[in-house]
Amino acid sequence: MRRTNATMTTKTAIRHLALTLPAMALLAPAAGFAQAPNQTPLNTAPTTQQIAPPGGVPALPGQPAATQIQTMESIAPAGGVTQTTQGIYPGGPGQTPQAITAQTTARSVTVQSRQRPDYDPAGVRIGGFRYDAALDLGMGWDDNLQPANAGKDSDAFFVQGVNLSAASTWTRHALGITASQQTRQYVQYNDQNWLDYSAGINGRYDIGRASSIGASYRRVHSHLATDNFDLQGEGIQRPIPYDSDIFTLNGVAAFNRLAIRPSATFSTIRYEEETINGQRTNNSNNDYDSLLGEVETEYSLVPGRSLLGLVRVQDINYTSEGQGGRDSFTWEVQGGFNYDLTGLWQARLLVGYRQRNYEDPSRKNLEGLAFEGQLVWLPSQLTTVTLAASRTIEESIRQSSVSYTRTAGGVTVDHELLRNVILTGEIRAEHRDYPDVGNVTDGIGLIGARYLINRNLSLIADYQHTERLSAPSGFREYGINQVQVRLRIAL
């Protein structure tokens, strides 16, 4: 009897092993996906809620892509980029081979969102907080520093960046602090140098199982780039810095299948005055305050599929005397859905109507179609394809054209060539419609790679080409090439 039981147990184990091994063989190539590089993601594409001035850096969305080279990391916690995937093989001498876990192959997991124990920066845990830090050092080349000029001035530059963060690891509620700084210094054309930095604090108080309230504050020092059409129209050929304070209150109220997400954001934009060619600029005429309110509702049909409704209002007030006619009020209503199809396709789409009315009756109101959406396709665990599009209204610093309508779209392909080598390619376009001037269209192409050396070191290289495809009469069409290589040291 004992021998019969032992024989049956052995046969059962062999049968399970025979079923498991083919499945493991099929899963073995899987390693992940990479999200879009360091850009303004089009799925969160600038809307009237993102009230930053045009042409700046991603610190304040809502601006043309400009020629600031889009680096290959996502904006991740300061521990470094969300590192690339690893396979199921040893990571080097003395390292334990990794197994394919449930999380590694979970539904909708991308290269950027998947955890990678061999390459993710570990950070430092003290008490109930995790502390992260990263330092970027590198250099690059820009072949068209002042695209508004007929001649092409090129120069090499050095880049340096620091990211710091502290985040709670509590099971309920949350508190976080972030700080970052980025610098670019040119070898010959020092007037093109810029320094950006930001610092912020955010918190969340949980109420029940799925409801919460949150608040955040962020101080940002950024700039408008020289390829910004508004600067070119004013004849400015150097970066224009500005400061912004952003206060946000938000919450989530969940009622069975229904979730309501209200938020309110108060922002300030303050441009710095500068002396250019002996003349003092009047940049402060473009200073304004913005108050934005938003309510999003989501009704869940089944897990992964829901209906969306969105209402936004925004009030913009210029602070300088004589600029009151530029004040505006914007409202919009959109509806759409979230849809997850088998975990291989995920879509979010909102479509509606937006209208902006100005205090000055002589200014033409802006109105029309509003949309924002993203489609993510996961053809394999090694590749992610992301399509995104948006149509928004943005502020302009042109005195004669307070705002413009911005339509943007793009496709990004991320591929894991090796378990520690991630390739990214991106093509996107942006069309801006100025009521008083005409249309401006830019195309941007980017390719890049990240080589993950270990938890603490990674090498990032990218190339970006920007092309002014069309411009109003009197403005140049041009091309800009930028290349950059950086070493990232993460804690």
From TrEMBL:
<feature type="signal peptide">
    <location>
        <begin position="1"/>
        <end position="36"/>
    </location>
</feature>
<feature type="compositionally biased region" description="Polar residues">
    <location>
        <begin position="38"/>
        <end position="51"/>
    </location>
</feature>
<dbReference type="InterPro" id="IPR018759">
    <property type="entry name" value="BBP2_2"/>
</dbReference>
<protein>
    <submittedName>
        <fullName>Outer membrane beta-barrel protein</fullName>
    </submittedName>
</protein>
<keyword id="KW-0732">Signal</keyword>
<feature type="region of interest" description="Disordered">
    <location>
        <begin position="38"/>
        <end position="63"/>
    </location>
</feature>
<dbReference type="Pfam" id="PF10082">
    <property type="entry name" value="BBP2_2"/>
</dbReference>
